[in-house]
Amino acid sequence: MSAPGPREAALWQAQRRAEALFEDVVARGLIRPGLRESELSAAIFALARERHGVSRHWHRRIVRCGANTVLTYHDDGPDRAIAEDDLVFVDLGPVFAGWEADLGRSYVVGGDAAKQRLVADIGRAFSAGQALYEARPGLTAGELYDYVAGLAAGAGWRFGAASAGHPVDQFPHERPVGARLVIEHGNPVALDAPLADGRPRHWILEIHFVDPAGRYGAFCEELLTVRGPR
Q1: 99 lies in which domain range?
Q2: Distance separating alpha carbons of residues 32 and 51, to the nearest angstrom
Q3: How far apart are the C-alpha atoms of 97 and 50, rounded to whole Å?
Q4: 140: which strand partners?
Q5: Angle between helices 141-154 and 113-135 (to 10 degrees)
Q6: Domain at 159, CATH number
Q7: Counting beta carbons within 10 angstroms of the beta carbon of residue 197, is it exposed (0 to 12), middle (13 to 18) or buried (19 or more)?
Q8: 193 contact partners, CB below 8 Å, separation of at least 6
Q9: Does any domain span residue 38?
Q10: In contact, 15 and 22? CB cutoff 8 Å
Q11: SS3 state at 78
Q12: What domain count does the chain have?
């Protein structure tokens, strides 16, 4: 875990503002049966602009429900409508004051116990992955990926993506030529390796667990390398 400084404070503030946006989405009842993914995405975009001052998103907005929640970021599915007892996840990359946030959250519409357990399990997996990062200097991207993917299997799910995170920073973040800066199996890059100028590199950790039968999944992501007051 990096010693706090101005960059870390700015990244944490961006995340906290993104969390406030998500809380507003829930408080306004935007996630509800009958709404299509495209309609929810448009409603969130308008809310982010009008109430939270977001004029730029550094990656495309992802809103998925039902069977589409098994898809990865790079996949496209049909524009589904949220059903009763559905699982919905939202992945946003708003830019606040020039700093990238990247936040993903999952919500169960209704009372399905298995889906509620899945959402709880991804939260526990994120916390365990962050604890491993903090306890293991020199932890590689590949080691962290294998660890969180193993947590999926241990909880009775499967890991839903070939990657589990990426860097985040002031917009636009570093994209060095030839470097594979992704949390994925076999990647030997140390997560605490600094940027080229010696400053700490910061990472997002993504957790995507999927029902073994492929019916639904749940997703969460947030800052791995920075914590702050809640």
Answers
A1: 6-223
A2: 20
A3: 15
A4: 190
A5: 150
A6: 3.90.230.10
A7: exposed
A8: 201
A9: yes
A10: no
A11: coil
A12: 1
- The pLDDT assigned to 3 comes to 54
Instruction: Pick out the chain residues at pLDDT < 70.
Output: 1-3
Is 132 within a domain? Answer: yes
- Give the global pTM: 0.96
Pairing of strands 203-210, 158-159: antiparallel
| Alpha-helix residue ranges (DSSP H) falling in the chain | 6-27, 37-52, 113-135, 141-154
Q: What digits encode the pLDDT tens for the residues 95-147?
A: 999 999 999 999 999 999 999 999 999 999 999 999 999 999 999 999 999 99
Nearest to 30 by CA among 40, 22, 20, 38: 40
Report residue 107 as tokens.
Answer: 């919500």
Structure-block tokens of residue 71: 């898809």
Residue 230 lies in a domain: no
Which pLDDT belongs to residue 177? 72
Q: What is the pLDDT of residue 175?
A: 80
> Which one, of 127, 150, 113, 153, lies nearest residue 220 by Cα?
127
In a domain, 229, yes or no: no
- State the pLDDT at residue 64: 98
Query: Cα(59)–Cα(114) distance, rounded to whole angstroms?
Result: 30
Q: Which residues of 151-165 are buried (b: 16+ CB within 10 A; e: fewer)?
A: bbeebebbbbbebbb
